[in-house]
């Protein structure tokens, strides 16, 4: 028999922390909840969030993290970055859940208690930062418990969907040969590329995971990435000191938990292709890949992708590869995709509506009503509307007389 709702509310409490020592005290329960979450994205894990809060903030930003407990059970986590408003300043921040290096920023909620956790965390947020304008969530996956929580909650915010992305992924439930059979000439091309690569010297493939995947490989990976077009374009990790600090700490954290993976191909010991991977539950996220352009005629990136997919399809601990990105080369592999949506919560008050809602509408879906019609017009008292119409009519008559 389910416990009465009033008993749940009596046992429900929210704790908010603002320092890393206090944050670490919640990590074991947090890690279990994130590892089992249906979204299966590593940005939910404390190993990622801790790095995000240390190395992902811009100048002038602060952070806090709230935890919702039902008795002793952790049912929700809300890590927040406080961003000063460009006009109103630090006293009226916008809150966001993803730093500049992270691909997704979702709220972690226990599926069985999603609405309860969601409402309690937002209530705690209003107590901690009563003058915040709103909350921004980046790339929330369609299977997130947050969507059900929003439908089942009255939260006091205007909720808007922003940009929609379809990120590439691959469900792992078939034989590798059968999978290659769906890719047209890919099997034949891979054999041709491998023969060409082998003509350059002895080829070795490395699949490093568990204790074999360490932070020591990061320096070699970063050098390979920076040697190619990303380095020339200024988008390689090595081009940005803050990104170097972020990924160094991230790799260290995931290696310590044995959830880091490195995939590599070498020719005569020389690294010609490499990929970075992070585990969350049965999903393997692959955010970064690099190859040596001196070997581009051998397509080392494609050869490495084939080896990674082949290895993943043979593993009982994986059900999904997730790139959390979309690229032209993904189409060659007939990858699936899943939808990720940006979410905005604007507090129902004058300043948030004036200063944040208009910006939200600029990035919201096309064809939506204007902010005035959607959310402001209904707040205006009827006598004020009548007086405005009468004044507007009188002004119109006066202009006609003058003309």
Automatic annotation (TrEMBL):
One Pfam family cited in the UniProt record for this chain: Acetyltransf_6
InterPro entries: Acyl_CoA_acyltransferase, BioF2-like_GNAT_dom
The BioF2-like acetyltransferase domain, residue ranges: 185-315
Name recorded for this polypeptide: BioF2-like acetyltransferase domain-containing protein
Protein species of origin: Microvirga aerophila
